[in-house]
Amino acid sequence: MVKFGIEFVPKEAYWKTVYYAVQSEKRGFDNLWITDHYNNRNVYVTLAATAIYTKKIVFGPGVTNPFLVNPIVTTQSLASLDEMAPGRVVLGMGAGDKTTLASTGIEATKQLSAVVDAIAIFRAMLEGKSVTYEGNVFKVKGTRFNFKPRGQIPVYIGAQGPKMLETAGKIGDGVLINASHPKDIDYAVGQIKKGVEKAEKKMSDVDVTAYTSFSVDKKPDKAMGAASPVVAFIVAGSPNVILERHGIDLAKADKIRGALAKGDFGGAFGSVSPKMMEAFCIAGTPDMCNEKISRLLKAGITQFVVGSPVGPNVRKSIDLISEQVIPHFKE
Amino acid sequence: MSYKKIVEMIPVEKREDLSDKLLNYLLKTKNEKNMSSSMAKCFLSQWQTGSFEDETGLAVLLEATATVEPEKTIEFVEQELHLVDVAKAVKEAAA
After folding, report:
1. Is B51 on the interface with A (CB under 8 A)?
2. Distance of alpha carbon B73 from alpha carbon B94, whole angstroms
3. ipTM higher than 0.85?
4. Which of A225, A273, A300, B33 has the fewest CB atoms within 10 Å, i.e. is most exposed?
């Protein structure tokens, strides 16, 4: 049965994010993902508070990256969280956003190798033994904790490009695909399958997760209105190959990029077309959203993540999902 | 007057509307710095174990909202719910 996850960006005081985390648990979500960006509240502080106030929801960073946070510190953080919430912790690891990383002075090169190394170090250190590892990007020598981690923690890999998707299928327990459209999921599942086959695993060994941009409301216009700013940023950050896959006019995408670069948010959000909305978000009434989620399920996902903005009123949208979306797929 | 006592003054049929509105004020507030650490913990503990619609929960929510968004809270109680005495009590408690 499909799992439902939800993503929150900890951009506000911790108690608001934790309020929504508790609400999500009460309303039947299985997974909670907290984004990791240096310019928001710290992901592990937020997750630690979440661990205290929840009792069954599975949670983790969605996603962290090995460039800004050293893999040893990531492992230490997750192992500590696993003591607070045994068996409820997962790791979401990706290559990081190059633009955001560049603003910190970090040059994110050899992204695939960095992720592979980080996961190898993560899993080895969770064994609780001294770890020596020489990867292409990260090297550790005789590194060990002064405490015994509880055990292995599932690893989800944030992936979009072909190589990362294949690698995720090969070494991941799950894949977080930043996509809301069946075309993108179809492509991703094909790549993941290649990795799964190379590792002689089964597809059922991998939790194929659609990490969507989602907005639900009883009034479709309100849902769409909340989603269009997020879609503008997705269009601006998408490589042309993905825009072309959805038949999006590259000149229009450039117009949005230009407007965002100038800080003309009104211009950027106003340039989002229906085709862009269709490609990069799931927005509308519960029935409209259910129809789109069904298409993603047919494409092969096993977890559906309700990502930003969730809806025009996050609290009410979570209730709406609980009442009219999750039961549609779970009952 | 304690917030528990203030909540007792609110007719039962108006508590759901009040709870809904106060949660909106609190979750959308920009005055996050006015939420003390102890009040945030009290708010989350109540949410973890109960709701904000019963007397205990509504008292916690009312205190938090009256502290963080006093003007909006009092205005709603007085002008939308037409509970003048309750609005006066909230004003005194929040002062």
Report:
1. no
2. 10
3. yes
4. B33
